[in-house]
Design brief:
The complex is a heterodimer of chains A (630) and B (176). Chain A has 630 residues and is α+β, with helices and mostly antiparallel strands. Chain A contains 18 helices and 10 strands. In chain A, the strands form 2 sheets. In chain A, strands 2, 3, 4, 5, 6 and 7 form a 6-stranded antiparallel β-sheet that branches. In chain A, strands 1-10-9-8 form a 4-stranded antiparallel β-sheet. Chain B has 176 residues and is α+β, with helices and mostly antiparallel strands. Chain B starts with a helix and ends with a helix. Classes of the chains: A alpha+beta (630), B alpha+beta (176).
């Protein structure tokens, strides 16, 4: 009970300190030294401390299962394992916002410590914008989603946690994703501050680069964890569904990817000022926009979150406040860019980066339109539709081809250079090689369309050129090479996966057998056991291949009691080259099980390649600063 | 001067988006009555979902008092929501449910039916989506209710939910 008050008051203290910082920083904009003497560091630290205190008290409430707290009541249960009690803290709307706030305050403090080599006025402005964002979140927490609402009389038992969310992967997925989102707020604030002060230059980019890479890496890992979870838990045998919530996490990632490249170019060549600033703004507002779309219930999605129009309204106003604020600041201070009319030659790295930026922007807008179009249509004509994978596939796949080619040629070009690139010959040979390779693959396995063959050729091209680059440059620029290699591997594995996946669906009883290509799948027995908070049915399948290898797959059906939910746990056997995926569903009032067996090649490589992509980012964070060219 | 226009248009654009979202939030429960102009359902030639033979809709729309024509797809999430209502509606002997499978892969569609039960007496494929345009559909899911004379008496855009399901039941009762 007491923890409720501690948490609530800690939040209030947070609010007060945040207000103090904001007001003093505005009033001392012209006399920064005054404020810096006045313990900005201590204030930032205490704000972080109180946010931490508030968060910890919520965690403690969850651990103790104190159902006097409304959030705990709705999302926890005494019989839930301790691990999921703790992860339940951020598995719900209120708790996850508190986590947002905690990370926000932490990074504001951390930024202040790490930005000593920036001019004081810019630091102060950054902290000021950061404070605006933090205040927005605290108000939202206190007003529309307070995690410390008290219920009296105290209920005896909680209402459980969505069992789909009871998964170790999902316990760490949101924090990692939030780390990514929240760091973009630093990038956003710092861009606005630099814009106002006219400080957008290569030195600024050098300091910002670390933040951009931190957030990019976390976002990449967060999305990876989310899609691994979807693959193992949702039991649909896919890893990406173009679901609105997935799209929402992908959009900031795309603009951040473009930003990563722009920041590098700005640091090296002192061009792309406006690109960098605009992308910083877009990335952060897309993150908030995602929160709005997900939390307000304006979209239909498989991800079930508690919806509340009041919350939606608040985030909407906050979102557009931020958008108009940054648009206005941009318009007013736009002329402060240090414009240096450098000519950009066509055969340079700069050009290929700009081209790829435009492609990324295109992908971004396709996804954005696909996600919000249903809302527009509903408002304008009161109709409901669902935009499915065919839309995204049709609009994205053809444009991936030139994108991949630019991505392979780009790193082989030189900066500034007027003369044409040197290893043209090698690149052409690789190009021919990859085309023939992809023709071979599609001839050999049949049933591929021309579109896919060309895409395959393009991704082979990127794949081979990155290997070539790695062999040639060794460890010279290996963070880039690893990420690009990872990306080519990702595209290649996704393609191979979608071309060569095979599956069979059937209804089976105990003792039944089905034949599938060169295998026999037999349902041997079904066992049931009782676990802490669910009932478990395990089906034993024996899969026998022609060459006498035998293995057992044990998919499960779990029936949770609070709230009553049935989930299917897929059984997956992972090999280097393919995954065997088996999932069963109950058929109503029937002794049959609905069985779905899939063979999915290169699944493991999709995960590995995403890890490689983020590894490149991690390496860049710890890399020494790059040399500037002109 | 040019610059001013572009600033102006960007701000207008954002205001427009804001308004759309704002109304989107409040729209949830709005319901507009469907138009009551009697319109005959067009006769179409479509491929049968299972056999892929060309079938005329006129040959299917016989021997029932009412027909529900439902456009669906396995990749469409709202379709999953409305499916249980179709299955329930199947038990009503007054009405016959005909599915039009919209821009879908046959395997996925079969799986969908396997998983959620098949409420349709006939399924036709609209692989490229042209038939749905001819019908005048806006997207998936969408349902038309026809009477014996193949006149459209009700059109439901979006998934059939509990409220709309009850409306259909009422309609069947009243018209009888």
């Amino acid at each position: 009970m007491i923890l409720n008050y501690i948490g609530n008051f800690a939040l209030l203290f947070c609010l007060i300190i945040s207000l103090i910082i904001l007001i003093t920083s505005i009033s001392s904009l012209n006399n920064q030294n005054f404020f810096f003497r006045k313990n900005l560091k201590e204030l930032l630290f205490f704000k972080f401390f109180f946010a931490l205190l508030s968060f910890c008290s919520l965690v403690a409430l969850f651990i103790n299962s104190e159902f006097s707290n409304e959030t705990v009541l709705n999302n926890s249960h005494i019989s839930k394992p301790l691990f999921y009690k703790i992860s339940g803290t951020w598995g719900n709307h209120e708790g996850s916002l508190l986590l947002w706030l905690l990370i926000l305050t932490f990074f504001a403090f951390f930024y202040f410590l790490k930005s000593k080599n920036r001019p004081n006025d810019e630091r102060l402005l950054t902290i000021m914008f950061q404070e605006v964002v933090i205040l927005g979140f605290i108000f939202f927490l206190l007003k529309a989603s307070n995690p410390f609402n008290i219920i009296y009389p105290v209920p005896k038992e909680g209402l459980g946690l969505n069992p789909i969310l009871q998964d170790p992967l999902l316990a760490i997925h949101p924090p990692v994703l939030y780390l990514g989102y929240v760091t973009t707020s630093i990038v956003f604030s710092s861009s606005l501050a630099g814009l106002i002060r006219g400080n957008i230059n290569s030195l600024w980019a050098k300091d910002l680069r670390k933040w951009v890479f931190i957030s990019w890496t976390f976002l990449t890992l967060g999305i990876l964890l989310g899609s691994i979870w979807a693959y193992y838990e949702l039991g649909w045998g896919g890893f990406w569904f173009w679901d609105p919530v997935e799209n929402i996490s992908l959009m900031p990632w795309l603009s951040l990817t473009a930003l990563v490249h722009c920041v590098l170019v700005l640091e090296k060549r002192s061009i792309f000022h406006s690109w960098t600033v605009i992308l910083s703004i877009i990335t952060f507002t897309l993150g908030i926009c995602g929160t709005f779309l997900v939390r307000s219930g304006i979209l239909n999605s498989v991800h079930t979150f508690a919806n509340d129009p009041e919350r939606g309204l608040y985030i909407l106003f906050f979102l557009f406040f931020l958008i108009f604020l940054s648009v206005l600041i941009y318009f007013i201070y736009e002329d402060k860019f240090e414009l240096n009319n450098k000519n950009i030659n066509f055969y340079t790295k700069e050009t290929s980066i700009i081209l790829n930026n435009w492609f990324v922007m295109y992908f971004l807008s396709v996804i954005l339109i696909g996600t919000v179009y249903p809302i527009f249509l509903e408002v304008l004509s009161n109709e409901k539709i669902s935009v499915g994978p065919p839309f995204f596939n049709k609009l994205i796949i053809p444009f991936l081809i030139p994108f991949l080619i630019f991505m392979s040629v780009g790193p082989n070009l030189k900066w500034i250079k007027k003369n044409k690139f040197s290893n043209k010959f090698k690149l052409i040979i690789i190009f021919i090689l990859s085309i023939s390779l992809s023709i071979l693959v599609s001839k050999f396995f049949g049933n591929t369309t021309l579109n896919i063959t060309i895409l395959l050729a393009a991704s082979f091209y990127l794949f081979i050129t990155t290997i070539k680059d790695f062999l040639k440059n060794g460890f010279k620029n290996y963070s880039q090479t690893i990420s690009h290699f990872g990306f080519s591997l990702l595209v290649l594995s996704i393609l191979m996966n979608s071309i060569f996946s095979k599956e069979i669906t059937s209804n089976m009883r105990v003792g039944d057998e089905i034949k599938f290509s060169n295998k026999i799948i037999k349902l041997q027995k079904i066992e049931n056991t009782t676990e802490v908070n669910f009932l478990k049915f395990i089906a034993y399948f024996i899969i026998e291949e022609k060459n006498k290898t035998k293995f057992i797959l044990r998919p499960e059906i779990r029936i949770y009691d609070k709230p009553e939910t049935i989930t299917s746990e897929a059984a997956i056997k992972t090999d280097i080259f393919k995954d065997r995926f088996l999932v069963v569903n109950l058929v109503k009032e029937n002794e049959y099980l609905n069985v779905r067996y899939q063979e999915k090649p290169f699944m493991l490589w999709i995960w590995i390649s995403a890890i490689l992509i983020s590894l490149g980012g991690i390496i860049n964070i710890f890399k020494k600063n790059e040399k500037k060219i002109l | 001067m040019k610059k001013k226009y572009y600033k102006f248009s960007i701000i207008t654009f954002f205001i427009f988006v804001f308004l759309i979202f704002y109304y989107g939030l409040n729209q949830k429960n709005l319901y507009t009555p469907e138009d009551i102009i009697v319109k005959k359902f067009p006769n179409l030639l479509l491929n049968d979902f299972y056999s892929f033979n060309e079938t005329s809709l006129d040959n299917i729309l016989i021997d029932s008092n009412y027909y529900l024509i439902n456009i669906w797809s396995s990749w469409c999430l709202p379709c999953r929501e409305e499916h249980p209502y179709l299955v329930q509606l199947k038990k009503n002997s007054l009405i016959k449910i005909i599915g039009i499978n919209y821009k879908d892969k046959k395997d996925n569609a079969l799986k969908f039916l396997d998983e959620f039960e098949n409420p349709y007496t006939h399924i036709l494929s609209d692989t490229n989506g042209t038939a749905s345009i001819e019908i005048g559909a806006y997207g998936v899911p969408e349902s038309f209710i026809l009477n014996k004379k193949k006149e459209i008496i009700k059109k439901i855009i979006g998934p059939i939910d509990k409220k709309k399901f009850n409306e259909i039941i009422e309609l069947l009762k009243n018209e009888n």
